[in-house]
Every structure is written in structure tokens, then in C-alpha cells.
């Protein structure tokens, strides 16, 4: 992300706030707010300005206000797939807490993009609509879910294929880079493994309409329990070991985690960051990890796997904001 610049120099948080105030007011603009608490990694420096958008209209207005003032803007969901730099994020961070859910009838549900997927699952299951319960236990907003095409090995108990959230997406309401609101169908979203058109289009997802089928609540609750148990036994628990989920992209037929494990790196630590003892493709924050620690550990794992297996581990998570240079010599 480019620093927020005015007349060739970086704008101060006060200047960023002053430029946004005519559109967003001053009462809800938070200056220099640390972002670590708003990420599942619990890592990251301050946003110049943080604003909570509580409706899809507010989300669109905030993005438009920043664009029109020439200020870089980042839309933050649950912060479950990102590493925020220790030096923080310049410009405006819009925390998406637009959490409206509306039943459209016949299993069609419109969710604003800040809806937490766990809440949406409960809403759907309570009403007897199936299709979303497979994603239980994955931290995500609806916006983050369509950004990355949320997926999981399912359905329980066979787990013979990867299921993707796109399978239940009917349409997505977007704010385009030209500031126009459009609605596109699932087939236009360019969904793939860990990707969608949002990675390259510069668009912001405002709301998603899901199309679900009538299901048996007893069966849905079985799937949820089995998935939670499966995850709980294989992944570190976020409450105790903050993380961003899988760090590296899948390597077809091999498994990034397996390669890291075969390099003997489970439990390897740099500063407060550690390769999980129970899942080698997950880095956990032992409490005081910095983004620099995580980046150094990523580089260490990449180096070890490249040397031993001649394979390149490509990070899956997004690197957001400004980072200090990594120092591979800071191992604890
Ligand atoms: C413990 C753990 C387990 C996980 N397990 C899985 C798993 O099984 N399967 C899986 O697929 N993922 C998994 N993940 C990754 C993560 O849950 C998903 O990528 C999730 O979709 C991230 O959503 P978010 O709301 O936190 O997005 P964020 O991390 O906040 O943002 C990620 C990106 O999406 C963009 N974005 C967010 N909202 C919008 C929007 N409204 N419009 C445009 N862009 C937007 C952001 O700008 C950013 O670039 C896991 C993560 C953790 C921490």
C-alpha cells in the first residue's frame, strides 16, 4: 500500500483525518489505533485512521471518501488472513462491521459483507437452510470469504473433496473502482482456489446473496460438530495460539506443511513467532511476536524447503502496511 501523500510528502494521521472529516465527521475517526487486536494473529502497528463501517452504505461512503481525498484505504474483515506490519498502515483502515442479514425467501439470504460467517451459519441452520455449515469454525467475514473463496475439506464424515463458499453464492454487490455499485453473479466472480476477482479488480464487496437448500437441522448439527472436532484436533486453538491460519499456499499433491515438517521445523521459533507443533503450515504468536519475527520465520521456512526440496513456498496471507526489514539473525 502506498503511503498517504500530499504535495509529495507523507500525510500525518491528523491530516488524513482532516481530509476525511467533511464526509465522515470527526466523532468516529480513531487516530493511531493499534490494529493488533483486530487481527487473529494479534500482531500489527497502528492505522493512521480507523473507522468502523456499520452498514454497507457506510462501507461504501468511507471507501468513496478516501478515494476522493486521494487517501489509501484498506478494508479489514476479521483480520484472519493477513499480517499487519509493525509500522502500521498509512491512510484509512475501514473495519467492516456491517452485519445486517436479510431473508429473501426460499433459502436466499442477503448478508452485508461485514457479517461474521459464524453468525450467518447460525442464522441459516436455525432456519433449516443447508450449505454454509461446512465452514463452521473458520474465522471470516462474508467479505473475506468471497475475497478468498473460503474452503474446507468436507462434507463430513467422508471429506473426499474441498468445498468452496462459491457453491452457495448467488450474487455479490460490489463497489467498483469507478465508484459504481454493481451486482454480479457467481460465474462473474472468477472464483478459484484461494482467489476471486477481488484480488485484482480493486472492487469492494458490499453484500452477498447466498442461495441455500432445505436441509435437516439434525444432520447440519452433526456436520458442524464433526468439523469442529476435526479442526480442533489438527489446528492450534486461536484463543491460546493466535495465528492467521495457513501461511503458505497449497502445493498440489505435496502439502506445504508436510515439506516444512520434513525439514524438522515444527516448534522452530524466531522471537515470539513459532511454527506450530501440531500443524507445520501454521505460525503461532506465543504472545509478544512482532510482524518482523513472523517474516523472518517465513523466510527461514522458505529457505529450508528450497534447499532441501527445491520447492518455493508462496505465502497465502496478505502483507498489509509497512514492515521493518526482517533480520534472519534474530532467532531465539
Ligand atoms: C485459525 C484459522 C483457520 C483458518 N482456516 C481456514 C480454512 O479452513 N479455510 C479457508 O479458506 N481459510 C481459512 N483461514 C483463513 C481465513 O479464515 C479466511 O481467509 C477468511 O476468509 C478471512 O476473512 P477476513 O474477514 O478475516 O478477511 P481479512 O483477513 O480481514 O482480509 C483478507 C483480505 O480480504 C480483503 N477483504 C475483506 N473484506 C473485503 C470486502 N468486503 N471487500 C473486498 N475485500 C475485502 C481484505 O482487504 C484483505 O485483502 C483460517 C484462518 C485462521 C486464523
Q: So, CATH architecture of the largest domain?
A: 2-Layer Sandwich
CATH topology of the largest domain: Uridine Diphospho-n-acetylenolpyruvylglucosamine Reductase, domain 3
Order of helices and strands: EEHEEHEEEEEHEHEEEEHEEHEHEEEHE
Domain unit count: 3
Question: What composes the largest sheet?
Answer: 5 strands, antiparallel
Ligand list: flavin-adenine dinucleotide
Low-confidence stretches: none
Shape: globular
CATH class category name of the largest domain: Alpha Beta
Strand order of the largest sheet: 8-9-15-13-14
Q: Which structural class is indicated by helix and strand composition?
A: alpha+beta
Strand content: 25-35%
What would the average pLDDT be, to the nearest integer? 94
Distance between the termini: 31 Å
Overview of the structural elements:
This protein is of the alpha+beta class and 332 residues long. The chain folds into 3 domains: 5-96, Uridine Diphospho-n-acetylenolpyruvylglucosamine Reductase, domain 2 (2-Layer Sandwich); 101-233, Uridine Diphospho-n-acetylenolpyruvylglucosamine Reductase, domain 3, CATH 3.30.465.10; 236-320, Alpha-Beta Complex (Uridine Diphospho-n-acetylenolpyruvylglucosamine Reductase, domain 1). It has 8 helices and 21 strands. The protein has helices at 13-24, 56-68, 117-126, 142-148, 198-201, 217-234, 256-262, 291-309, and strands at residues 5-6, 9-10, 30-34, 46-53, 73-76, 82-84, 89-96, 101-105, 108-112, 129-130, 151-154, 161-164, 169-175, 181-185, 204-211, 213-214, 243-246, 269-270, 273-275, 282-285, 318-320. It has a 5-stranded antiparallel β-sheet with strand order 8-9-15-13-14. Strands 3-4-7-5 form a 4-stranded mixed β-sheet, with helices on one face. Strand 13 (169-175) and strand 14 form a beta hairpin. It is globular, with a radius of gyration of 20 Å. The two termini are 31 Å apart. The model has no long low-confidence stretch (mean pLDDT 94). Flavin-adenine dinucleotide is lined by residues 40, 74-82, 96, 113, 138-141, 143-145, 147-148, 150-152, 198, 204-205, 235, 238, 243-245, 318.
